[in-house]
């Protein structure tokens, strides 16, 4: 989940071009960086715990031949930045190898580093040692590795550099007699490269200056923020979490409780949410969608964008777009620092299995998490269920960057996989916004609704001035792009395919989609925030978004009320590892935070009095 780039040229490549390539690569991840280049006839490797543009600014003179860079979104460990060197082979890798631990046993070698990428040079070295040629490295690596592998493999001793990809997240172009490469086509076309082509499994082998000297390696910077929590689990901490059954009245048809905002029960005990419910899963004829997308199909290249979180719904939607609709998508992921490694592995797994390019826009993760911490501290000083959503406001720039990716790829069509049953009226309801039973989209839209919502939020913020911090603009601008900014050329896949949970889970099992070890549900398991905010909702209100989701399934006839009650009894249990990860990631003390949540008065007790 990174950006790689480089210039292979008989003359010293343009410094301006190199800077532009690095700037775009930083969009995909800016947590650490690395360079491979030739200087004084010897290959140099520089790694840093800071942004690639900063590392490049400190670069001195370098020889003609090869210069390549890596801008990293931190995944799968902090210990080893790229480029990764082993057995004289240097690798710059974009992606996550999800089966690297199994590969070591298959090739009979032992890892020496923490990073999953190390297995690539190990495979390449074994292949060459057994008599294989450089051109065969791609096939050998891709034959063993699962997950995205888009990489540059340099073998200086043989004077060769291999470029290959199993999902298309790698492009080459020609300029000034040299070859440029990048994780995306956009920077190459912007720089005026010709013959821009996608690099796939067959790969490309380029000549680079030969050298038998060892690499000169330098590591720069010292990370101030731990972007991957070490996650030391403790039974003492876990015991602080409570899971108390609430004595509350529930709807006799669905399972919504009396603590649900704006709920009312009729004489039969059926709630107004049931009385006003309109089916959300009645699919339109698929032929309509085939006709709608027909003008966007391309004979060559990608023809649509699938917003892609790595969650079950976007993964299932990707399957439908590729296998049923027959489109050639590029997926788009916005990583704002609350995508867990499990979520990232599923992104890597699905993209590789389906051979689909994945474009990533990564936020400044340290800053985003600091914003969360500021708002969480403000929330803890004046707990308010209607203000919990501010903790997830940072992810709304997802909608802003969809438009950016449309411009960069020149692809206008985007196909969304939003689950129509994920309606959570209560999140705004606790703030004072009554449910809009006529609303037919998961995400609220319209300037007037957003203005009213923000006015209510402002009133709640006055109770805890800590909310007025430098994250406010990030919050407001993100919500503008989600709810107000106009959007064009988009369709919802689940308007045409009925969303049914068992079918979704069965489909994903075919791709070896990874499940969470701390819960039975497949919903939001790659989301680092969900376990924490659901713990608050359940502790204080006696229900979570699982209850509203299961209630919608009851109304759709997808399960019985008894089945739903049994499921939420399990799904609402505290997910200690996920909550621990979240609080460690944002730098909050686990015990202090949970004890504050536990001390909030229960709504069920207030109703009883």
Automatic annotation (TrEMBL):
It catalyses: D-fructose 6-phosphate + L-glutamine = D-glucosamine 6-phosphate + L-glutamate. Its EC number is 2.6.1.16. One of its GO terms (molecular function) is glutamine-fructose-6-phosphate transaminase (isomerizing) activity. One of its GO terms (biological process) is protein N-linked glycosylation. The keyword Transferase applies. Residues 2-211 form the Glutamine amidotransferase type-2 domain. It is an enzyme of class 2 (transferase). This is Glutamine--fructose-6-phosphate aminotransferase [isomerizing]. It comes from Rhodopseudomonas pseudopalustris.
